Amino acid sequence: MDRAAEDLTARARIRDAAIRLFGERGIEGASIRDIAAEAGVSSGLVRHHFGSKEALRDACDHYAKDRMIQIGAELTQNGDLTGLDPLTLHPIAFPLQLYIVRSMMDGSETATALFLEGVDAVEDWTVSYGINPKDRRGYAAALAAIKLSVFILRDQVSKALGEDITTLEGYNRIGQALMEVFTIPLLTPEQIRRSEEK
Amino acid sequence: MDRAAEDLTARARIRDAAIRLFGERGIEGASIRDIAAEAGVSSGLVRHHFGSKEALRDACDHYAKDRMIQIGAELTQNGDLTGLDPLTLHPIAFPLQLYIVRSMMDGSETATALFLEGVDAVEDWTVSYGINPKDRRGYAAALAAIKLSVFILRDQVSKALGEDITTLEGYNRIGQALMEVFTIPLLTPEQIRRSEEK
DNA sequence: TACTTGACTACACGATCGTGTAGTAGTTTG
DNA sequence: CAAACTACTACACGATCGTGTAGTCAAGTA
């Protein structure tokens, strides 16, 4: 994804092109012929390497999941951030996130499993962080969904901001805005108490 | 949408079926033949009434937008809530929201305009409510996107909760979880200050 | 050298898509 | 009564889709 296209094997180029086009246009919106053209190969080669469109999506699912987990692991161990500054990380991680969300919407089990693992992680995190919502599972699910919302509606959010959020600058802006959503309490304790009485 | 199907004109049944199927499967995922079958008419009649698939989506866009605005207006004037209790409102509004989000993702200008109007409304609301984020526009855009995220990821969120959020009970649960996200400050003021120093 | 294997292309297939055309039945209108 | 119009169906069209088949070419191997 980060290396020059001509240095990659045809199989890798097909997979990268599939992740890119699937993520941008949706699974149904990107044909095998589109992906083959994007990768610079024949459509038959896509079938030769992956068997079917479904199997291609499966391969993309597992690759994207592994890459995201790998990136997450490298990010958490703060000691070694070699080559993981935002400027190089963003162009790699953003298309992966985009693809995963699209695959989720298409009903992929692998992508959905990744979402469920994310909810589990957020749930554990609320415990260790001392956050005690009344509905912890619901809270974690909402937080996980929110993290993905800007990817899905990136065109609309970009238009609302007058700034492309697929760029690093735009992405950082909406990321900080999301942080403000999480840190500014919308309701006063008094209002919360009153809404509970109803 | 709420009346018995046999009491509606064929045109209305086609439109309702289109909103339902477009919302569930996406624009590309629902064919004109599918919609015609769902409405109990021939595929030719869809074309007769709406001209093309694009024009059908346009008609659905405007209908959904008008209905949502109408519902919103009836909800805000608290005096008259005739027939607008959640039990009857939910089955009407939920498919409309689902469709609007799908249409947005498909690049519909009408649906995107509705999103931008929503962002404007949230922005105005933060002003009158005394909420002052550093990036007010970004804050409003994030909040508007969040409101729609659970519709898109409804299958994943439902699976995470073990409860179908398309039902009124499930929808209320995730709605309250979202409220908790907005009301529980994630970071302490100390942590916010520290993150700003970086 | 002869054989096998894997990467790769060209091409044809049936299905499905949106769309176009022709025509029927019932109602309205002059 | 005849013409016109509207709601509606049946059917065929070209395009595109995922897929299947056959074959080329280069590299490895016995």
Automatic annotation (TrEMBL), chains A, B:
<dbReference type="GO" id="GO:0000976">
    <property type="term" value="F:transcription cis-regulatory region binding"/>
</dbReference>
<dbReference type="InterPro" id="IPR023772">
    <property type="entry name" value="DNA-bd_HTH_TetR-type_CS"/>
</dbReference>
<dbReference type="InterPro" id="IPR017958">
    <property type="entry name" value="Gln-tRNA_amidoTrfase_suB_CS"/>
</dbReference>
<dbReference type="GO" id="GO:0016884">
    <property type="term" value="F:carbon-nitrogen ligase activity, with glutamine as amido-N-donor"/>
</dbReference>
<protein>
    <submittedName>
        <fullName>TetR family transcriptional regulator</fullName>
    </submittedName>
</protein>
<dbReference type="InterPro" id="IPR009057">
    <property type="entry name" value="Homeodomain-like_sf"/>
</dbReference>
<keyword id="KW-0238">DNA-binding</keyword>
<feature type="DNA-binding region" description="H-T-H motif">
    <location>
        <begin position="31"/>
        <end position="50"/>
    </location>
</feature>
<dbReference type="Pfam" id="PF00440">
    <property type="entry name" value="TetR_N"/>
</dbReference>
<dbReference type="InterPro" id="IPR050109">
    <property type="entry name" value="HTH-type_TetR-like_transc_reg"/>
</dbReference>
<feature type="domain" description="HTH tetR-type">
    <location>
        <begin position="8"/>
        <end position="68"/>
    </location>
</feature>
<dbReference type="GO" id="GO:0003700">
    <property type="term" value="F:DNA-binding transcription factor activity"/>
</dbReference>
<dbReference type="InterPro" id="IPR001647">
    <property type="entry name" value="HTH_TetR"/>
</dbReference>
